[in-house]
Design a protein that fits this description.
Distance between the termini: 21 Å
Number of domains: 2
Number of helices: 10
Helix content: 55-70%
Length: 191
Amino acid sequence: MVATLEPNSTVVPAELMRDMPLSAAAAPLLASARNPRDLIDKLLAAGHASDALRVLLRALPKRYAIAFVCDCIRKDAGITPLPAVDAACLVSAEAWLVDDSDAKRRDSAERADAAGRSSPSAWAAAAAGWSGGSLAPRGYTEVAPPQHMYAVACYAAMMTLAASDPARAKARTAESVERACASFGARRAQS
């Protein structure tokens, strides 16, 4: 279970989403939400699946968010196989999940850069690459990534994945959010 997503969480949604704002249409729901799970439920009910995804990814711990994204990409790859460069990006992100060493993190960041962050797998690798450590090349003064950078990359991965089927993009996004909430043990908030 992820405590941040539980219905009794005391996490203030406005604070959580400070660095990753919601769309203008969804922003009014932020003020009335009791916690992140309540906000996700309100966003889904109002048809703002991409904003619900944004909240979900920001609320999840880094490893959970990246693992969730990798799992979604793997499921999609079962339908449409990945090109070699994307497969390598996904493997590097998954390798970081197993061994979160700086070497694995840097490998993921380098693969994402080489792939131009143009696919869900490249964004997953970027998320792992931006999970900590330094954004600067080796030998330069360290520059820590902002705390929300992993969630931004995870969001880009998921939105790029959803866009592969434009007719179902919104539905796929909502289904992914619901699946993640179920997977991480977060029950629906009670009204």
